[in-house]
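User: Fold this; tokens only.

Assistant: Input:
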Amino acid sequence: MKKIYLSLTVLVSPLIYTFAQSPEVPDTVKIIENANKVIISKSADTTLIEVETEKGYEKDVFSYSVTVDDSDNIESDDSFDFEIPFGIGKDDRASSSGRKLQTSYFVMGNVYLGQRFNYSGKANVKNSFEVGVRNLIGIRWSHGSYTPSFSIGFGYGAQRYSAQEGFMYAKEGSRLYLAPAAEGVEVSSTELQVFTFQIPLLFTIPIGRTVEFVAGAVGCFNTYACASSEIKIDSSKYKTTYKGLQQRLFTAELTASIGVCDILGVYASWSPMTLFQAPYGPQLKSWSIGATINF
């Protein structure tokens, strides 16, 4: 038996010397004899270990708890890191990682003015113009400055469709159409005006620190429309106005823009839905381009 202890001592001594020279802090080891049951439970960040021992008729319980503090962990379960392959520097991407979702409100987000081009069902309608405020008020969600964001807002806009020379708007029952002017009638002006409330759903991607790219869809509630014509017969002037038109109450557009933050930009929109359902008016479909003033 003494030879066995001597052999173990010879073998273990170099190992003890090696660990003694190591700079690492040794783990705490607890040796429990006669363990009967081991229970490990976890609650939040705390882990509890309970060991039940039994020796003869005596029973005892050893408890040990460990709490992990992950406050220094940069990434969390609700972290968000959206990397854009262009425009944003590495420092900006690093600063946006791990930020919680932020909510902000804004007013007068975007004023636009552009030219509308009719590509379908235009008949005798000229290309027209549009003007409005894309966001009178809105709400935006993002993870901080210079990170992508999503917004929803409320805006207002107007469109004007003028007729080709020599034509004027006329109405027959619920149908609005363009009729050629009679002989001896001089058409001074004729136009169709449509006023809309808008709900823009926009996704914004920053390109660097000064440029933004915006894309999304805009729901348009066409609440009011009227058509008017001014004519001249001999030396007398006449004006006719038609209200109660059967325009679509809801249309949708796709839009995209790029511009300098809080200054100027350019935009393009596409309207795949007709302004009137057949046979209540011209089957207009259009797209538009123009300028924006960003706030």
